[in-house]
Amino acid sequence: VMAGYGSSPQVTLYNVSTGMETGSFVGAYPDWSGDGAEVVGIDDGSGCFRAYNVSMQSERCVSESTRALPRWDPTGSSRFAFIGATNTLIVRDYNTTRFDVQANVSSYAWAPTGDRIAYTMNDTYTGQCNIRYSTIGTLSVGATTNVANDVSCDALVAWSPNGNSLALSNSAVGYAGLFVVVLTASFPVDLSAMSPVCTSNAGYDDLLFSPDNEWVSYSEVLGQSANLNLCPADGVGSAIQPISGASGTGSFSYQP
């Protein structure tokens, strides 16, 4: 089961096997809880981090004042991350413990172990956008590693479920495409010397690994519609397109 949203602020649950919609609620930026019981999104009207229970078909407000991209800690703990004012990446929990990770962030992804977050950030000192990951402690942020420098500022990042790789999109002229970086590599990597696993002429609107680590999925925006594409993570074989011509431009999420 996948969840996504379109031009109107509504999250729709979609069963990939049957091709049927299975539920919906008002919201955007959907994300599944670790146990697959709930899917969450931001209500554009109230700013509420809203959770929808799949079996009960009911919803509740988990937290207020999240601005964009709420993501639960994948280990199932009570904390989550979101992008707040001044595009600052923030981690907080139900007990209101909160700390800033990085300012000027446009995209981010939790490591499956919940101890690191990868993100795209605009370095105001160099004028470049870089992809980094930082260690996330209980009360503060720890060491930071540069993964790739001088990427496009709209670059997206995703962490593989097995924790071994990062996927990133890049639209910079000369080395545009979707790349998979193995975390045993020497950092920062040189994207111009790598081969992309996929390319898109329309750009990237969302980016995720499939739960089995085999595919990197992205939304390809075409005006007011979007296609869902799946690329083989190892770059071997052809991409597939399970959904095409979806109304609006939005994002999606796999059920665990």
Would you kindly provide a written description of the structure presented here, covering whatever features stand out?
- There is one protein chain.
- By secondary structure, the chain is mainly β.
- Helices cover 0% and strands 53% of the residues.
- It is built from no helices and 23 strands.
- The protein has a 4-stranded antiparallel sheet with strand order 3-2-1-23, with no helix packed on it. Strands 4-5-6-7 form a 4-stranded antiparallel sheet, with no helix packed on it.
- A hairpin with a 5-residue loop joins strand 9 and strand 10 (89-92).
- The radius of gyration is 17 Å and the shape is globular.
- The relative contact order is 0.13.
- The mean pLDDT is 79.
Map the helices and strands:
Blueprint: E1 2-5, E2 10-15, E3 20-26, E4 28-32, E5 38-42, E6 49-53, E7 58-63, E8 68-72, E9 80-83, E10 89-92, E11 98-102, E12 105-110, E13 116-123, E14 128-136, E15 141-151, E16 157-159, E17 165-170, E18 177-182, E19 206-209, E20 215-222, E21 225-232, E22 240-247, E23 252-254
Antiparallel strand pairs: 1-2, 1-23, 2-3, 4-5, 5-6, 6-7, 8-9, 9-10, 10-11, 12-13, 13-14, 14-15, 16-17, 17-18, 19-20, 20-21, 21-22
Compact description:
It contains no helices and 23 strands. With 256 residues, the protein is mainly β. It has strands spanning 2-5, 10-15, 20-26, 28-32, 38-42, 49-53, 58-63, 68-72, 80-83, 89-92, 98-102, 105-110, 116-123, 128-136, 141-151, 157-159, 165-170, 177-182, 206-209, 215-222, 225-232, 240-247, 252-254.
